[in-house]
User: What shape does this take?
Amino acid sequence: MISLKTEFKDVASIKSDALVVFVPSDDKKNKAAKRKLQTLLGKSVPQTSLDDVTGKIGETSIVYTSESFSSKRMIITGIGESNKVTLEFLRRAGAAAAKKAQSLKLASISYINENFDNGTLEINESLEDIVCAVAEGAALGTYKFSTYFSDEEQKTNPLKSVTFIAHSKKSLKQIDAGVKRALAISDGVYLARDLGNTPGLDLYPEKLATAAQQECRKAGCKVTVFDQQKIKSLKMGGILSVSKGSERPPRFIIIEWNGGKRTDKPYVLVGKGITFDTGGISIKPSANMGAMKMDMSGAAAVIGTLKTAAALKLPVNIVGLVPAAENMPSGTAIRPGDVVRIMDGKSVEVDNTDAEGRMILADALVYAQRYKPKAVVDLATLTGSCVVALGHYATGMMGNDDDLIDALKSAGDSSYERVWELPLYDEYEKLIKSDVADVKNVGGRWAGAITAGWFLKKFTGDHPWVHLDIAGTAILEENGDYTQRGASGVGVRLLIEWLRSK
Ligand code: BES
Ligand code: ZN
Ligand code: ZN
Assistant: This one.
């Protein structure tokens, strides 16, 4: 993780490899911003070097400063039309500048706060939120999964430190709050991305449990791990059936953050922790199967969220539940046609062993009821069908409570980890009827994301519940503005935004 910090300094004496300023694109404001820059930089920077600065969102240009500045460069970064700037545009601009610095192998950059609070940008957000967005963009945009490289240059991130400059004592406090929040959030997202990107060879249920223990305990959470024997004694037949084909025993991970009153009922977060999904006996085709190392992205989001919630000392009680298993084909694996019992005693016909996520989640959703939760939110890379429906830009959402659905929708819009509701109409229920058991684990060809949602619904209590299918948003095929190909760490920013509003 790069270091994020705040300083109270005048521009000329800031010592870093580059200063960063934002410039809007609309003609009048663009010219005004450049005039101000010209005055700041003085004659050493010829006017013509600013002429080409259009201010288009994400566009960067470098100018070199005069000797009177302790920083020798400036990265001028476009922020788009001044009256259309949103927190998302600030994330993108923050990322664009940091990525530019990273590609130039600069070690330190300083965002000058000038434009944030003097009316250049017509944005109706607090200075704290503005700075948090820019800092988040900078941190998340420069993430790189480099654990397995041998070459030093590939292994190390040149950009080490990002500083936010305050121009007054008054703004220092708000800027610092924004930077600190961004740091806690990016830490959680980095953890989720690292877990997702780590191959199944090195990240199996026991390792996922160790990672949760190390990372979340350090942050102040309580972590409990159930081993296979305990899982057996709890009759968690879904988890046991999925892990049957694997040499790696399952784990059930419980992470608690108690920031609220003792008597406050907790929010329970459940994350699918399939450390590798081959499909089992209903084996997947080999093309792109490697992406299934990220089939524990729901678990990663829950672990990252608990770590961040603890770092932010959110004044609520949160329980994270992670059923963790590896789905492998073998002589001991569960077969299509087998019937198993979930923890609540319901029987499930396993028609397809590749629909394993819902099996392990069923046990976790039943277990969640022990907490008499205020709400349960589960996250899972659950269906290819959801990716077909929504692609990579929206998480599929289903649930039983309009207020919870609305709250997550709104947290999704502000964090830009957007969610979109799919209907759990009654008519879909019959698609998972079984001839031999209480329910079947697949629903046929159509509406696969919804029949999966209906399956989960059968194992939730009568508390508010939302299921988030992150199959498309957790696993990315291309780089984005501040995401990279591979594990996105989606869910952490969404859930933190939601929980912060409590
Ligand atoms: N982990 C997969 C879903 C998935 C697919 C996630 C692509 C991310 C990208 C899940 O376990 C699965 O295999 N689901 C099946 C369900 C089917 C057998 C009903 C699917 O979606 O094909
Ligand atoms: Zn599967
Ligand atoms: Zn899966």
Q: What stands out?
A: The mean pLDDT is 96. The chain is about 35% helix and 20% strand. The pocket of zinc ion (ligand 2) is lined by residues 277, 279, 354, 356 (CB under 6 Å).
